[in-house]
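Worked Example 4.2. Consider the chain below.
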Amino acid sequence: MARVKYRDSDVSLMARMMRAEAEAEGNQGMLYVGNVIVNRAVADCLDFNDVRSIYDVIFQIQGNNYSFEAVQKGNLFYQRARESEKRLAERTLTNWRQHPAHYALWYFNPYAPCPPTWYGQPFTGQFKNHCFYEPQPGTCDSVYMG
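Applying the procedure from the previous section yields the following structure tokens:
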């Protein structure tokens, strides 16, 4: 059973975001980005109370900007999804989760060592250039259930 409801268009949308955010980090890096996208769709807490679909997550606006930089800057996000990336997206939509993004709701590339917290949320690990953060214990139980 899928972790979140999705349509074919969601697979393509997610695949485009995964490539735009982490192509340089290979399939593993793209899977981690996919993990965060799905986690945000199932998390009913914090910044993610009003996002229930893949579309909502990817086009979420916070602080007058899109949550994902790739939506703003264009780059690879606006290119057609490749079949290999669609397969990766489907893996994360259905059941794939792995540390350090297993329960992560945030990631970023600090261009420096990963800070121990990101907006008060604990660091869970790093993969290549991306640092991953999950919610403080007790603040978002729904992400651990989805």
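The chain has a mean pLDDT of 94. The helical segments are 8-22, 26-42, 54-58, 69-73, 83-94, 141-145. Compare this with Example 4.1 before moving on.
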